[in-house]
Design brief:
The protein has 361 residues and is α/β, with parallel strands linked by helices. It folds into two domains: 3-41 and 261-359, Alpha-Beta Complex (Aspartate Aminotransferase, domain 1); 43-259, 3-Layer(aba) Sandwich (Aspartate Aminotransferase, domain 2), CATH 3.40.640.10. 37% of the residues lie in helices and 16% in strands. It has twelve helices and 13 strands. The protein has helices at residues 9-12, 43-50, 65-75, 87-99, 115-122, 139-144, 168-177, 230-237, 247-258, 260-283, 307-316, 342-359; strands spanning 30-31, 82-85, 105-110, 126-131, 150-156, 181-185, 206-211, 224-228, 287-288, 295-299, 319-320, 322-323, 334-338. It has a seven-stranded mixed beta sheet, with helices on both faces. The protein is globular and about 60 Å long.
Length: 361
């Protein structure tokens, strides 16, 4: 059988990517490749998991209205603007399924999270990549790129991989002047003061996507949510499965959101360790992006001409980071570092000091 004759062209043209490194526990010393909460999971969540009633497992899982109410309080928005989804990526899938048709144009400023491109191409959409200047967004550049076919603009705030936040005035100018839909991915926002959902009071073309994977430490539970004007939310709901998010994930997300002390300590831990890492790398002569969140870019050109080589060298020594070329950077000399715990951060810095010393001899 020639499988190409049966698979949709959009699917056949995609490549398989490995997003999380394969388990290599024997050789792995430190993993700074994944954006997860290095402070860990709330003790309240772990306790609740031990005591979970069997009915939460042996039953279908309706939308958890108590969780939606807690999100409503957290972001200061009405409950009717919220849709629970299976992680940020699942939410992006719902949005793409609702709005993108073959031939539709989508604007994606780069460098940024690569899944906007994936979901667009999967549905036959066309990606228009707009390079940023010095990793900063230009409203003029974005808006001048809009055509009659442009349906969606994707913005990541704070941005993955740079960790930098979009200037609020620039973000609002884009939302205000663009006649289509602006999707703002705030998966990394919980450790910052960013809250784009408040703009829903002024604009009906805005969709905000958030996650419980980062600051809340629930990455493997795959739970996130969409915030949008009710007209948009009602259309997206038509594309969701009645079994979209499992009940355990919703119950534990509710507990995580209520544990304000853990959220506070997680933010402090991430901010403190980010500063330590960036300061340490800059002392080695390596430039880092001025991140506000749990990840940042490092320009490794003083050490290597190619990020892949450095990533492999670190991996051979048990240290995992991300080759940032997947984010459509202007040159292949960047790695993305995601903050881990203090021990693993120290091991990473120790290895970077060794490499710097050896390569500069």
């Amino acid at each position: 059988m020639n499988i190409k004759n049966f698979v949709r062209k959009e699917v056949f043209d995609l490549t398989i990517r490995e997003y999380a490194p394969k388990d290599d526990s024997n050789g792995k010393k430190a993993d700074l490749s994944l954006n997860i909460n290095p402070y860990g999971v709330s003790k309240n969540v772990l306790e609740a998991l031990k005591k979970m009633d069997k009915s939460k497992i042996n039953h279908y899982y309706p939308e958890n209205h108590e969780l939606m109410g807690e999100i409503s309080l957290y972001l200061n928005i009405p409950k009717e603007n919220i849709i629970i989804g299976d992680g940020c990526d699942g939410c992006l899938h719902l949005i793409a399924n609702t709005f993108i048709e073959a031939g539709d144009e989508v604007i994606i400023p780069t460098p940024t999270f690569h899944r906007y491109e994936f979901h667009t191409k999967l549905l036959g959409g066309v990606c228009k990549f707009i390079p940023m200047d010095n990793f900063e967004l230009s409203a003029e550049k974005i808006l001048n790129s809009v055509s009659d076919k442009t349906k969606i603009i994707f913005l990541c705030n704070p941005n993955n991989p740079t960790g930098m936040a979009i200037d609020p005035k620039i973000k609002e100018e884009i939302i205000k002047k663009f006649k289509g839909i602006v999707v703002v991915d705030e998966a990394l926002a919980d450790v910052t003061d960013v809250n784009g959902s408040l703009l829903l009071k002024k604009y009906d073309n805005l969709i905000v996507v958030r996650s419980f994977s980062k600051t809340f430490g629930l990455a493997s539970l795959r739970i996130g949510y969409i915030v949008a004007h009710t007209d948009i939310a009602n259309q997206i709901k038509k594309t969701t499965s009645p079994f979209q998010v499992n009940g355990i994930a919703q119950e534990l997300a509710l507990i995580a959101l209520k544990d304000k002390e853990h959220i506070k300590l997680s933010k402090e831990y991430i901010q403190e360790n980010r500063k330590k890492l960036i300061n340490g790398l800059e002392l080695l002569g390596l430039k880092c992006t001025p991140s506000l969140t749990s990840n940042f870019l490092v320009d490794i050109s003083p050490l290597h001409s190619n990020s892949k080589e450095l990533v492999n060298e670190l991996k051979n020594n048990g240290i995992y980071v991300t080759d940032a070329s997947i984010f459509r950077l202007p040159k292949d000399t960047y790695i993305r570092v995601a903050i881990s715990n203090e021990k693993e951060n120290s091991l990473f810095m120790e290895e970077m000091r060794k490499l710097t010393s050896e390569l500069r001899k």
